[in-house]
Amino acid sequence: MKFVIQRVAHASVKVDGAEIGKIGKGFLVLIGVAQDDTKEIADKMVKKMTGLRIFEDENGKTNLSLSDVGGELLLVSQFTLYANCKKGYRPGFTDAGAPDMANAMYEYIISECKKIIPIVEKGQFGADMKVDLLNDGPFTIVLDSREL
């Protein structure tokens, strides 16, 4: 499982021109699910992501978590995080989870995040989405479950 976490001042996602998710200060998280991912892996990823202390305190140090600052989450599925570009110029996606399994895992991640963070918005699994954000910092972190 991979999470690309972007600290944002605000972010939104549209499908077919209609806004379906919007947050203020918080994290825009692009979520990639692999074939062998499990709920246990998702639990570790959610715990790590929501606990990251990457917001500045009164001294300008990154000591505050999402909860500490009343931050919000926008979670967007993105199977392209598992693109394999080793051969040729056209990426392969055989490492990405099958759609049914990946969607179930994405929905599980959303439900677990809602237990921790009051405002959790989401994209639409499998849709052509337009994501708009103002990256704050910029501050972007890649969490890979193989490295936890």
Describe this structure in words.
The structure is a single chain. With about 150 residues, this protein is of the alpha/beta class. The protein has a single domain, classed as D-tyrosyl-tRNA(Tyr) deacylase (D-tyrosyl-trna(Tyr) Deacylase, Chain: A, 3-Layer(bba) Sandwich), CATH 3.50.80. The strands form two sheets. Strands 1, 2, 3, 6, 7 and 8 form a six-stranded mixed sheet that branches. It has a two-stranded antiparallel ribbon with strand order 4-5. Helix 2 links the parallel strand 6 and strand 7. Helix 1 crosses helix 2. It starts with a strand and ends with a strand. The model has no long low-confidence stretch (mean pLDDT about 95).
